[in-house]
Amino acid sequence: MLLRTSNVDFVFISECIFLPWPTLGNYICFAGGLGIKGAVNRVEGDFSCTFEVERAIPFLKQAYGDSMHKVLHVGPDTCSVVSTLLREEETEAWGVEPYDIEDADHNCKSLVRKGLVRVADIKFPLPYRAKSFSLVLVSDALEYLSPKYLNKTLPELARVSADGLIIFTGYPQHHKIKAVDKFKVGRSAKLRSAAWWFRYFVQLSLEENEAAVKKFDQAAAKGSYNPSCQIFHLKSYQ
After folding, report:
1. Which of 82, 111, 164, 233 is paired with 15 by a 20 to 30 Å CA distance?
2. Distance between CA 111 and CA 179 in Å, rounded?
3. What are the tens digits of pLDDT across the range 48-80?
4. What's 42-234's CATH class?
């Protein structure tokens, strides 16, 4: 099946999967086969905070303990994060891919079929009940939202978490974050300082989880882990 898209000559659709979630559409298709002129990868550039999530998992487990048993990750390459989490003992994991997974591998397609990974526009309400997950991890996603949608999405992420919301985001000065292609999201990443984020959290009545921060920092120091992204540990709404 061939589709013509803007900025790309042709996309060869090799496989489509029926999705039972009405809010997300009926089918998702994966590209393959033909070489695509000017093809865009899901993530390009020098650095990814989604990769940082995977590096941080052992230290998150030490900081959050039993709260790591039911985790939602939101961000690009969520299939990779979910797969890593599922390898942990007594951990269930789900993922929301905010953009697309047209270049998904076999493992990612399998996670979609099982309903463990969804493709959803995070500018709109998430298809989950309040406190559906013990922890929500988000990476490489909030940077691409305008203030209008950030005001809606961040409270949504907190709403579906029971024990905490953990945000991984790039530093405005020190790193060039991998850029999700503008063709998919419509805007460039806006990297913000820690001071900006903390002021913003206060506006949304989101409190820092100081106990989790202390445990995480202690575990990271003991394991010689130096995060390459800013990591914010927030309490869920009560």
Report:
1. 82
2. 24
3. 899 999 999 999 999 999 999 999 999 999 999
4. alpha beta
